[in-house]
Design goal:
CATH architecture of the largest domain: 3-Layer(aba) Sandwich
Helix content: 25-40%
Protein name: alanine--glyoxylate transaminase
CATH class of the largest domain: Alpha Beta
GO molecular function: alanine-glyoxylate transaminase activity; L-serine-pyruvate transaminase activity
Shape: globular
CATH topology of the largest domain: Aspartate Aminotransferase, domain 2
Cofactor: pyridoxal 5'-phosphate
Number of strands: 16
Family: Belongs to the class-V pyridoxal-phosphate-dependent aminotransferase family.
Number of helices: 16
Pfam families: Aminotran_5 (PF00266)
CATH superfamily of the largest domain: Type I PLP-dependent aspartate aminotransferase-like (Major domain)
Amino acid sequence: MPISAFRPLLRQIYPSMSSASRAAPRLALISRHLDQSPFLELNTPFSTERSAPLEADVEYQASKPAPSRSTSKGTQTQPPKEQEKLAKMSNQAPHPALLIPGPIEFDDAVLSSMSHYSESHVGAPFVKTFSEALKMLRQLFQTTDPSSQPFVISGSGTLGWDQVAANLGEPGDEALVLHTGYFADSFADCFETYGVKATQLKAPIGDRPQLDEVEAALKEKTYKIITVTHVDTSTGVLSEIRALSELVHRVSPETLLVVDGVCSVGSEEIRFDDWGLDVVLTASQKGIGCPAGLSIVMASGRAMERFKARKTRPTSYFASWKNWLPIMQNYEANKPSYFATPSPQLIHALHTSLSQILSRPLDQRFAEHRAASKKVKQTVADLGLKQLATKPENQANGMTAIYLPEGLTPPEILPNLLKRGVVFAGGLHKEIAARYIRFGHMGVSVVDPKRDDIDRACAALKEGLSDVGYKKAE
């Protein structure tokens, strides 16, 4: 909005002041708005992104049709199969492929379901849709235990932390947070907000705490909760969940195992029952392939019993399972219920996305993500670049965090990628944010055979680096 729009208001507030006098308080307001010094210290390197051009400032070319082939008469025509492929790939407006670690590209049908007409959130048609979505979540998480409980609440993945801390922790409890990047710091901070004492077990950047270290920590003190980030979006580090769960159940069976799966559910294998997990929390906009706005949690029967046995009232109102448990149980049983208004359009989108995911074996979906990840990581190696996660067993299948060549920063390379129709993310780990970029490869960009997002992004990375003068060392 232009500054001139505020002049009538300023004249009403300062009627006897000259233009110059009125300008002083106005400029003071603007300067305070632009002041970059934070009121509180933030656990995020926003300053590294501010010097990067906005997408609107960078021109990019929409994807060109695949090369045509010559006919016997020498004319150029598009192969019929290619014409069909291009026509069906997407009905969305031309845009650069969003290949960050979430939000991701969305399927046309998922976006179309968002335009569902308005309906009552307690009406029979919507209740049926919500019920089916909750049941499909059980299939996605691979739990058949009737005591397991899914929660779908309007909010981001961060709300999952609040649900865990507010409902499974009580003031004075101890939590062990396994640290593989930015999001462990934030989860620990969330615990402290609710009066739960958080101890972090940290690994070097690009690595994860080793099982013997975890075992020693569990033997040293009794923890009510242990948390692990399955894939840390800031580093691309993948944690091994099954072996960790076996360790926790053997060494400290009373400790609840909570998995932050925001950047893993839908792209990494998770077997809720078989692995003995207590909570997996996630969000709608990453591997599940639904627009942002839903906090999704699966809690075990053991976790729910722990919640019901708590001595104090949950320390959040909106995130309280005391309020949400009967709602979720009623919706799943096809009964209308109400605590706070859900988003019918987002629930429809979730229903569509889950229907697509479950239309094929989950093992096939995970295999396709592994194959795409292998292709991306081979491209990185061929360019002579390194990943933050140097050990193969630590490397996620839905994203790759890539160290840039010495002296190159994200704002220098990201606009070159955008010109080629792909969007990568800058660094997020505050200690090294200016040294790396992040490539998200999950969801429809991986599993839809009509899309060429991954191949196009790999080519763009090579060309974009070449444009800024990078040459692989011989």
